[in-house]
Amino acid sequence: MAFQIITSRCTQCFACEFECPVTAIRFKGENYVIGPKKCIECEGYFETQQCAAVCPVPKTCVPA
């Protein structure tokens, strides 16, 4: 399973983009998105999902 960004909650602070170890997060159109095929939920890199950990708005980066 991958994570997703709830675009209506995202403030576009870009903190998550730089924390993703596999560069699955990118700016597309007017929103940040997480590539579902590329997201590995930080498995093998971190114990918690970094996008959710660094996001200033709770429940913005959530399991898809």
From TrEMBL:
The lineage of its organism: Bacteria, Pseudomonadati, Pseudomonadota, Alphaproteobacteria, Hyphomicrobiales. Its cofactor is [4Fe-4S] cluster. InterPro entries: 4Fe4S_Fe-S-bd, 4Fe4S_Fe_S_CS. The keyword Electron transport applies. Pfam families: Fer4_10 (PF13237). The keyword Iron applies. Keywords: 4Fe-4S, Electron transport, Iron, Iron-sulfur, Metal-binding, Nitrogen fixation, Transport. One of its GO terms (molecular function) is 4 iron, 4 sulfur cluster binding. This is Ferredoxin-like protein in nif region. Residues 1-30 form the 4Fe-4S ferredoxin-type domain. It comes from the Bacteria.
